[in-house]
Amino acid sequence: MSAETRPVPAVPTSAALPLGRLAPLYGAQALATGATTVSTVLASLIMSGLGRESLVGLPSTLISAAAALSAGFFGALMLRLGRRTGLGLAFMLGAVGAGLGFLGARAGAVPLFLLGAALVGAAQGGYQQARYAAAESVPEGRRGTALGLLMLTSVLGSFVITGFSGAVEGLGNRLGTTAEVAGWLVGAGLLALAALLIGVWRPLRAPVGAGETITAPRLSVRQAFGVPGVRSTALALATAQGLMVTLMSLTPLRAHHAGMDHGSVAALISGHVAGMFAFGWVTGPLIDRLGLRFGYVGGAGLLLAAALTAPLPGTAWLGVSMFLLGLGWNLAFVAGSKALARHPAAQGVTDGLGYVAAGLGTLLGGVVIARAGFPVLAYACAAFALLPLLSAWRVRRA
Prior knowledge:
The chain is mainly α. The protein folds into 2 domains: 22-203, Growth Hormone, Chain: A (Up-down Bundle); 219-398, MFS general substrate transporter like domains (Growth Hormone, Chain: A, Up-down Bundle). The chain contains 18 helices and no strands.
């Protein structure tokens, strides 16, 4: 039995989090979030700069599709070889993809740029499962807290790299290209650093927790969803992810039509990101104390409020909606991730469904807006926001 997979003795649920040993994992995830902020978020601008205005949404579509396809693979790989190996390979794949994306964007080679974007998406399907590694590293009663802190460090990584936007622009000038293109090179470096950092991380226990009943490292969708508790957990996670990405992606279009300038739209996104990540230090411990049902019910209520306030007249309501959207996602996502930490073999499949829900939501949402208007989309999202209540009803234990 390797040092990575050797279980550790049970720790009292009141014990402090082992932050020293978790620091490399948290640091790697912060670097990965910073890499995403400086690269893939700006992919549509690169496509526009390459003269492919009609394809500005294609990189995001490829990223979501690749993440959906790779999540199950990385989930099985981590079960077989351990979290450290799986996460390290995911970060390295992301570094290669971001490097290829930079080369393709700088050379004006659209196929190469799209290949890089797809590889980064595939990497995301792996390294986003770092949250399960954090949850497995602490007693079950402290998993919400560990997940909340992971989300907080993630948003700090995003804010830090945003503060270096001037340096990224300067790098672009030295390379004879734009800041958006240079950001992909910076992203490659950050992901490479994340791979090195995860290499020194020492997991505290195997990716199979106490009481885990799954032994096969590879499960079909039917097998994974036959495990008690997985279906209701997957419903909450996929709903939260799908609604969050759909409204996050399409609300800026409504803001633009309402006359908001670029700075105001950026402020909307910042408020949304704050709702998603900045309060993890509060929501995580609350879920540990009050249980999974609190996370699902609270998340559903906030997602519902976000969808209902989005179509209200006045741009101020858009800011309220985006913040509530992020916070509702946070509650449902932390609760669902904590629950799914009990079922490692189902994690990759369930994460893949979340990416599929997000991709379908943005694709169909654009059609709905074009044919019926944004309010119809918002009300449809409000109806879907009630689905985590079914998950709450099925919870047997927190």
